[in-house]
Each structure stands twice: as structure tokens, then as C-alpha cells.
Amino acid sequence: MEGHEQDTCAQRTDKVRELNDRLRTTGQGGRTMMTRAVAELPPQTLAALVSAMREFENFTRENDPYGEHDFGCVEIENESYFWKIDAYDVNFEFGSPDPSDETVTCRVLTIMHVSDW
Length: 117
What we know:
The protein is of the alpha+beta class. The chain has one domain (3-116). It has a 4-stranded mixed sheet with strand order 1-4-3-2. Helix content is 35%, strand content 25%. The mean pLDDT is 95.
């Protein structure tokens, strides 16, 4: 890639990461879904899980190879949970044509127990 193309790609990645972090840490900028196993957790456990997900910062090359902060794993009460952010088009039919552009993207954060994966 030439210099300008690399800059543009890096800028898009930065924007995707920013938008994903906003959804994960504040709940704004998309929808949050949970699997049945998560929805059935006791309220205090669910609150601890959401808090741990929002505070998650342990992004590495292994769990975040593209630098988009779209996946993580947290442990609550000796149980492991995943969270995953997907970027869809505005009709939720296909992947977003440009996840860095909020006008053409609908984000969905899904929280699940590892057994749901």
C-alpha cells in the first residue's frame, strides 16, 4: 500500500475502534443483545458482567488482530463470557459497506456465555 492508502486505512480502523468502544463502554451507537443464558443471570451477576465488559482494556494482537476492539472475553464468578460487536448495513441484511461510517452502519453488541459460542 502506498502512504496515502495506509493513512486512510489506519484512519478507518481508528474510527471503527472509536465507534466500537463507544458502544461497548456506554451502550450508545448501536444495539445490545444477550443470549438467553446471559439474560437469565441474577441481576447482580449481569451488572458485574456488563461492568467488566465496559471496563475491558486487555486488547492484544491475539484477541484484536485488526485493532477494531470488536471482541473480548471476561470472567465473572468463575464463568467466562464473550462479547462481540458486528457491523451491519442499515437494514440488518448484510455486513456494513463501511463500518467506519455511522450513516451506513448499525452496530450490534452481543454478550454471551462461552457455551453459547
